[in-house]
């Protein structure tokens, strides 16, 4: 059975983010602002259908997909590119491959205890983000039913 990623996750750390954004050719002004914010993640998982919301005071980004099915991802809120993306299970981890202008782009996401880890990669740069669960999925379900 796959890991349950449902929850609201608060950022704890974001290592090497500046270099990761440089590898994506994100302009310096956006990089500086992005480094100041600590986005939250809200994840809604129903079987193999997932919605991952990255929420911040600067920009929000919503990614909706089915595990194992390729889709066109519009990264307008990130680096203004489009790519063909596939997210699949790799054991207890989510593995994302983003095929487009940037070679070697994607991410891996997994949970250890009450922490969710996210390793972004683009070309040779990586960025490791750690978040801590703030709200349990049962509470989230009650909120969405209201």
Characterise the protein shown here.
- It is a single chain.
- With 146 residues, the chain is an alpha+beta fold.
- Helices cover 17% and strands 52% of the residues.
- It has a ten-stranded antiparallel beta sheet with strand order 4-3-2-1-10-9-8-7-6-5.
- β5 (71-74) and β6 form a beta hairpin.
Topology at a glance:
Layout: E1 7-15, H1 17-23, H2 28-36, E2 40-46, E3 49-55, E4 61-66, E5 71-74, E6 82-90, E7 93-99, E8 105-112, E9 115-122, E10 125-135, H3 137-145
Helix pairs in contact: 1-2
Structural class of the secondary structure composition? alpha+beta
Kindly estimate the percentage of residues that lie in beta strands according to DSSP.
over 45%
**Helix and strand sequence:** EHHEEEEEEEEEH
What proportion of the residues is helical, as a percent range?
A: 10-25%
Please work out how many helical segments DSSP would assign. Answer: 3
How large is the radius of gyration? 15 Å
Secondary structure tally: strands: 10
For the largest beta sheet, what order do the strands appear in spatially? 4-3-2-1-10-9-8-7-6-5
Mass-distribution shape: globular
């Amino acid at each position: 059975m796959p890991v349950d990623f449902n929850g609201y996750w608060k950022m704890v750390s974001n290592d090497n983010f500046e270099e990761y954004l440089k590898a994506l050719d994100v302009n310096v002004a956006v990089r500086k602002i992005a480094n100041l914010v600590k986005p939250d993640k809200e994840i809604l998982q129903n079987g193999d259908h997932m919605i991952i919301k990255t929420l911040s005071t600067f920009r929000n980004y919503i990614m909706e997909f089915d595990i194992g099915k390729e889709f066109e991802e519009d990264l307008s809120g990130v680096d203004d590119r489009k790519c063909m993306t596939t997210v699949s299970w790799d054991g207890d981890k989510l593995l994302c491959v983003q095929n487009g202008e940037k070679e070697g782009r994607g991410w891996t996401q997994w949970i250890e205890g009450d922490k969710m880890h996210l390793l972004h990669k683009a070309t040779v740069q990586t960025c490791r983000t750690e978040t801590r669960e703030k709200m349990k999925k049962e509470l989230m379900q009650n909120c969405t039913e209201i």
